[in-house]
Design brief:
Layout: H1 4-29, H2 33-57, H3 66-78, H4 80-99, H5 108-124
């Protein structure tokens, strides 16, 4: 049986891998090249985050495609003004969830901080 900490680490690792694929797909469909560049950079950072969790789980997980399919479709249907706030909220929510892991896994503090920065960065794309 898997303990609660390991479950949280696995869920976090999965979320980071899902975000890698989501950002890669978004970079392929967005119409603004500056946005695409940001999404490619975020995909790379999410990959590094997944490696932080992998160091504890040693689980070979694979990204789930749901967000990678849904978010580009929503982008095409609703536009960046509606989709980017959703993405930013997802980043802020992840940061909040990581807060409870930090006491046992201090290196997750950097991941939490990055997720908050990601949320701010995606939100700032709408301000240009």
């Amino acid at each position: 049986m898997i303990d609660e900490k390991t479950k949280a680490l696995l869920k976090s690792q999965q979320g980071e891998l899902d975000a890698v694929l989501m950002y890669q797909r978004l970079a392929e469909v967005v119409t603004d090249e500056r946005d695409a560049k940001v999404f490619r950079a975020l995909a790379n950072e999410e990959w590094r985050h997944a490696q932080v969790f992998y160091a504890h789980t040693h689980a070979m997980l694979h990204p789930k495609k749901a967000k990678a399919v849904l978010l580009p479709r929503l982008y095409r249907l609703l536009g960046r003004g509606r989709v980017y706030p959703m993405i930013a909220k997802g980043e802020y929510d992840a940061a909040a969830k990581y807060e409870r892991l930090i006491a046992d896994f201090p290196e997750v503090a950097r991941v939490r901080d990055d997720e908050t920065r990601h949320g701010d960065l995606v939100a700032s794309l709408l301000k240009r």
